[in-house]
Amino acid sequence: MSTFVQLILTGLMVGGIYGLVALGFVLIYKATRIFNFAQGDLLMLGAFFFWTMLVQARMPLWAGVLLTFAFAIAVGFLLERAALRPMLGQPILSVIMMTLALSVFLNGLITLIWGATWRVYPPFIPARGISLVGFTLSRQHLFSFIIALLAFCAFTLFFQRSTYGLAMRATAEDHQVARSLGIKITLIFGLTWAIASLISAIGGILLGSISGINLTLGQIGLKAIPAALIGGLESIAGAIIGGLIIGILENLAAGYIDPLVGGGIKEIFPYIILVIVLLFRPHGLFGLKRIERV
Amino acid sequence: MRPCGTFDVNYEQDLRIVRTPAQRAWAIVGLIFLLCFPSFAGSYWLSVVSIIAITVICVQGLNFLTGYCGQISLGQAAFMAVGAYTSGIFTNKLGLPFLVALPSAGIMAGVIGLIFGLPALRLKGFYLAMSTLAAQFIIVWVIKHLDITGGTTGMTVVPASIGALSFASRRAYYYVILIVMLVMLYFAKNLARTRVGRAWIAIRDNELAAQIMGVNIYYYKLLAFFICSFYAGIAGSLWAHYLTVIHPDHFVLMNSIWYLGMIIVGGMGSITGTIFGVIFIKFLDESAASLAPALAVMFPAVSATIAASLGLMFFGLVIILFLIFEPRGLYHRWEIFKAWYRLHPFSY
Question: In whole numbers, what is the pLDDT of chain A averaged over residues?
């Protein structure tokens, strides 16, 4: 029983990060109907940039964080302007291909600059475990979870309260209506990509602080896709819940199925869940069921 | 556009693939060139052309799904792996002949594909991209964890043989690849212009309109996905008997993305375009590989990583540029060139 709770707790902590990255995926899907397959590579880019700031440039933590955020936002705007803007009006198929191409390009760029070696952040969170009513949690996990939740609340507030957040929601609803209300759609698209990139960078830093960073981090970032699908592709709250579910289930699978199959089920268990969700509840928990009429 | 003076007077002419004497001459020259190729080519070029031919089969399958039916598969490499391992197990462990293993590999890949396609293809939109992403990871993981596939150590495969004929040398095996490729391309060319191919195009262009015209969307999408995976399986089988050693790392997600890129560069929804795309990307990759040492000397700061990254960056950049500036691919350029050439010196 106690292993069970322990597994759930650890899963919950990592799931928070998945949920955050899934939020970036959902944002772009809502605003533009694109599956952004470059999410994992954006995550890696942020994580590696943060490492360069902290280790190579020897910056203090706060400066490194701020610079990484600024860099991620700039990358988001740049990608939208250079690669996605020319695709406006093109079939969605082509635009999804564009995100795949961006993913490959970013992957190449990251390989070129940082290479395949394993990097570790200087310990900015004490690694010592803390005990919570009899269960131990690593501080890194707990800290990451709290940061992920805080970031999630901040972004939710942004969508609910700020003018730009409202404009983004209007754009997600209907491009033409949004334009007729005086919303500059191209700016909103840029903002969407900037926020998605920023969210990925936060996710990258948090994941990196737990397990170190190397070129496989992008594949961990891709686990946000099953998370987003479980929650429902249109739902912001669904993203975080989907993330938590994925985190918990993959940890439980690692705990109970791994001894049977010889390890490593964690890598693919989210995708097994993805297929099951597609079979039984294709619109996810909170997604919209689209009805088409002629 | 056809050259001046070629017009059809009966149905047989309308159905022909090769229409003009010039086309026939080119087709014969091309065929003779391909048949004689092993007798004068070095082993490097022979391997390049063999791999291109295998990739053409694989990408042709994907072209049905993406170019004709308008769906994305991110698992083509994994389905190729299914074909490769099926063929390997059939010939090695069960001792079945190559001629049985080849089609079984295709069918096995198609069936595994259906398992992942069934849930996704019932939904509108690009959900297939997600479930094939899942397929990509799950299949490769399963291969790595099974005993019969040799796990992460890989698997050796016996060279292909038909009856007493052995194709152990790559020069001999080249002809197997060539013939299978030609058969698959001929099938593809014909399938694309039958009822099935037209139904796919209708679905791609407007799903709702296709449904109203009486196209069974669910059935045709599944069929597209089955044939797509079938082609991948055939390519996988050829690949397994070509290399004679297969490893799960030959079939990673990046390969699936490369195959999609080849379709974009060549031109979606065109059989000839697919061949252009494969050749173009393959040569891009080869030139990146040959450029890397020189660039590593020029930029010593990144010399260790440039070989691994240059191909990726080239590839990503080329796809981005093609999507922005020539979304209809090389085949469109080729058509424009042909029209210009046929009309010369008049502009229309």
Answer: 87
Q: Which two tokens stand for residue B43?
A: 């082993």
Interface test with B, best of A97, A215, A216, A267 (most B CBs within 10 A): A97
With beta carbons under 8 A apart, name residues in chain A contacting B320.
83, 98, 101-102, 105
pLDDT(B113) > 90: yes
Cis? peptide before A259, omega within 30° of 0:
no
DSSP B152: G
- For the CA atoms of B296, B297, B302, B304, what is the dihedral angle to 10 degrees? 60
Domains of chain A: 2-280 (1.10.3470)
Interchain contact B187–A (C-beta under 8 A): no
Question: A235 and A287 in contact (C-beta within 8 Å)?
Answer: yes
Residue type, B233: G
> Bridge-partner residues for B155, per DSSP?
B246
| ipTM score | 0.90
Asked whether the beta carbons of A47 and A214 are under 8 A apart, the reply is no
Asked if B323 and A100 come within 8 Å (Cβ–Cβ), the reply is no
When CB atoms are compared, the residue of B123, B141, B315 closest to A267 is: B141
Say if CB A91 and CB A200 are below 8 A apart. Answer: no
CB contact under 8 A, A102 and B327: no
Cα B79 to Cα A274: distance, rounded to the nearest angstrom: 18
User: Exposed/middle/buried for B154, CB within 10 Å: 0-12, 13-18, 19+?
Assistant: middle
Spatial contact of A84 and A95, defined as CB atoms under 8 Å apart: yes
CA distance A6 to B69: 47
State the average pLDDT over residues B265-284. 92
CB contact under 8 A, A278 and B130: yes
In tens, the pLDDT along B154-175 reads 888 888 888 888 888 888 999 9
How large is the C-alpha radius of gyration of chain A? 19
Cβ atoms of A98 and A83 within 8 Å: the answer is yes
Q: Which helix (H) or strand (E) holds A103?
A: helix A92-114
Q: Cβ neighbours of residue A3 under 8 Å, at least 6 residues apart?
A: A255
For residues A274 and B131, is the Cβ–Cβ distance under 8 A?
Answer: yes
Cβ count within 10 A of residue A264: 13
Are B100 and B302 contacting, i.e. CB atoms less than 8 angstroms apart?
no
Say how far apart CA A85 and CA A75 lie, in whole Å.
14
- The DSSP call for residue A213 is B
Burial A110-133 (b: 16+ CB within 10 A, else e): bbbebbeeebebeeebeeeeeeee
Q: pLDDT: is B19 or A203 the higher one?
A: A203
pLDDT of A157-215, one tens digit each? 888 888 988 888 888 888 888 899 999 989 999 999 999 999 999 999 998 888 888 88
The C-alpha atoms of residue A103 and residue A88 are separated, in whole angstroms, by 19
Could you report the per-residue pLDDT of A224-283, keeping only the tens digit for each? 899 999 988 888 889 999 999 999 999 999 888 888 877 788 889 999 999 999 888 888
Give the chain A residue nearest B133 (alpha carbons).
A271
B78 touches chain A (CB under 8 A): no
The C-alpha angle with vertex B302 and arms to A42 and A107, in degrees rounded to 5, equals: 20
Any chain A CB within 8 A of the CB of B153? Answer: no
> Looking at this protein, which amino acid is placed at residue B136?
Q
